[in-house]
Q: What sequence folds into this?
């Protein structure tokens, strides 16, 4: 992925849900609305004391399937925060902010300025 193709990077901070005041910065994270989950280096998550809770399987473009652990972390970005399930990334892998985290943060991608902005009011349940 290239920044010329409409992608961009943003700075985020992470924290253990039990210690939200102890934030760890993670600069220049790729924003990827096509990725369901956010991918964070395992070393960063381990340093925060994040537990591996589940195992997910991911199919790559070439058809191979990856197996990765996930855990729960607080993500701070664009002046807001959310708690989300993130992937323990391996060395040399992408570090990215995925669609679920963006939705939890209630932000959307502003394509012209290449930044995250408030998504406005969230939808409530439809009337029956």
A:
């Amino acid at each position: 992925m290239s920044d010329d193709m409409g992608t961009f990077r943003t700075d985020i901070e992470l924290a253990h849900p039990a210690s939200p005041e102890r934030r760890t910065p993670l600069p220049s994270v790729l924003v990827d609305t096509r990725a369901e989950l956010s991918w964070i280096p395992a070393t960063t998550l381990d340093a925060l004391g994040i537990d591996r809770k589940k195992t997910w399987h991911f199919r790559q473009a070439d058809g191979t399937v990856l197996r990765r652990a996930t855990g729960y972390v607080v993500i701070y970005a664009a002046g807001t925060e959310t708690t989300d399930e993130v992937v323990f990334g391996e060395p040399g892998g992408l570090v990215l902010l995925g669609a679920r985290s963006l939705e939890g943060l209630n932000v959307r991608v502003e394509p012209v300025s290449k930044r995250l902005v408030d998504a406005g009011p969230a939808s409530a349940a439809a009337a029956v």
Summary: The chain is about 10% helix and 50% strand. The domain at 11-117 is CATH 2.40.70.10 (Cathepsin D, subunit A; domain 1). The radius of gyration is 15 Å.
